[in-house]
From TrEMBL:
Species per Swiss-Prot/TrEMBL record: Daphnia magna
InterPro entries, alphabetized: 17-beta-HSD3-like, NAD(P)-bd_dom_sf, SDR_fam
Compartments, record wording: Mitochondrion
Transmembrane segments: 26-53
Name used for this protein in its record: Uncharacterized protein
């Protein structure tokens, strides 16, 4: 009896020692994870302060001088693009609006001119048109000093769908509008910004770009094409 209870105690003692070691190891893992969470949260907090609070303190009065007299906004007649156009006009920047419907373009341009007393120009263009449309755009903006380019125009699925259920049109729209137009607009405008060493480009990405979105894979992939890091996304949302 005594022998059995002794060996049981020994076994229990060994087990407790083992679990203690395991516990210590888990504690170290826990500390590392907590450290990472603390660092990530602090960085996110500081960038939120920088973007949402400090940016408000910065004077925007010389915005036009800082970036340049004209801004291009693609998809400027509705939604986020229209608000970008309005907010930039509020800062005194002249606006080049680009989208498909000439009625909407004319109406929004008139609204902006009347409300903010800036110049506007409209360019009627369908960004799903592929390579051929950029000669027209290049011609339309010739001679204008572009300080800001807001790559806003974008398409999305009407509803979540599998790849083979999508029409060819929708697939090419994602390629041509979400990826092609953004890249070509940068290609057209960036040289003059680099030459003057001033200007800013905003790409409107989406939170769906951080990982593949099931049943919207082309959309999420096209949106991750649009930004190199999350700063781009934060910057875009901060300015809007
Ligand atoms: N809304 C959201 O919740 C959300 C979330 C994340 C990211 N985003 C991104 O933000 C951007 C703007 O989204 P939104 O919802 O504000 O768009 P929206 O309300 O649908 O506005 C689209 C604008 O683009 C123009 N447009 C549409 N197709 C065009 C084409 N093929 N060629 C030229 N212009 C075209 C439209 O005018 P016409 O019809 O006259 O051409 C309109 O001015 C997109 O890149 C989108 O992916 C939006
Ligand atoms: C915006 O898009 C252009 C063209 O694809 C790309 O070169 C640039 O890095 C993008 N900007 C950001 C902040 O991701």
């Amino acid at each position: 009896m005594a022998v059995a209870s002794d060996s049981f105690r020994l076994l229990a003692g060994e087990l407790i020692k083992k679990t203690e070691r395991l516990r210590d190891m888990l504690a170290v893992v826990g500390l590392i994870v907590m450290g990472k969470v603390a660092v990530d949260t602090s960085i996110a907090f500081l960038s939120a302060v920088r973007i949402f609070l400090l940016s408000k303190l910065r004077s925007l009065s010389n915005f036009k001088e800082k970036y340049g007299p004209w801004a291009i906004v693609t998809g400027a007649t509705d939604g986020i693009g229209k608000e970008y156009a309005r907010e930039l006009a509020r800062l005194g920047v002249n606006i080049i609006l680009m989208s498909r419907s000439i009625e909407k373009l004319t109406r929004v341009a008139q609204e902006i001119e009347a409300e903010f007393h800036v110049e506007t120009q409209v360019v009627q263009v369908d960004f799903s048109g592929g390579r051929s449309i950029f000669d027209k755009i290049s011609e339309a903006i010739r001679g204008k000093e572009i300080g800001l380019l807001v790559n806003n125009v974008g398409v999305m699925y009407e509803m979540p769908m599998e790849l083979c259920e999508l029409s060819q049109d929708v697939i090419w729209q994602h390629v041509n509008i979400n990826m092609g137009s953004l890249t070509m607009m940068c290609w057209l405008v960036l040289p003059q910004m680099l030459e003057r060493r001033r200007g800013a480009i905003v790409n409107l990405s989406s939170s769906s770009s951080v990982g593949p979105l099931p049943y919207m894979n082309i959309y999420s992939a096209s949106k991750s094409f649009e930004f190199i890091d999350l700063c781009g996304l934060l910057l875009a949302s901060a300015v809007s």
